[in-house]
Amino acid sequence: MPLLKRITRLFGDGGDSADGSATGREAVGRKSVGPSHVCQSCGKEYFENPSMNIRTCGNCGGVKVERV
Ligand SMILES: [Zn+2]
Fold first, then answer.
1. Dihedral pair phi/psi, residue 38, rounded to 5°
2. Which of these, 55, 56, 57, 65, has the minimum number of CB atoms within 10 Å of its CB?
3. Separation of 51 CA from ligand 1 center, angstroms?
4. Residue extents of the structural domains in the chain
5. How far is the CA of 59 from the centre of ligand 1 (A)?
6. CB-based contacts of 49: which residues, under 8 Å, 6+ apart?
7. Distance (Å) from CA 45 to ligand 1 centroid
8. What domain of life is recorded for the organism (predicted)?
9. Ligand 1 centre from 2 Cα, in Å?
10. Distance 49 CA to ligand 1 centre (A)
């Protein structure tokens, strides 16, 4: 069964190494970017869509949640 063998190899070595490096890089990149919004009153960090507008802070109720 040549087809099954190829699929197994894809999931085995090829898929494993490709998945590891790809997800690792993405996680590091996201971390270095930091939060999308920060509350100027209490310092709470929000990790939301940067295009999203947060009007009030869910932590302190402040209205100074600014995009970073
Ligand atoms: Zn706040």
1. -135, 135
2. 55
3. 19
4. 1-33, 35-68
5. 5
6. 36
7. 9
8. Archaea
9. 59
10. 18
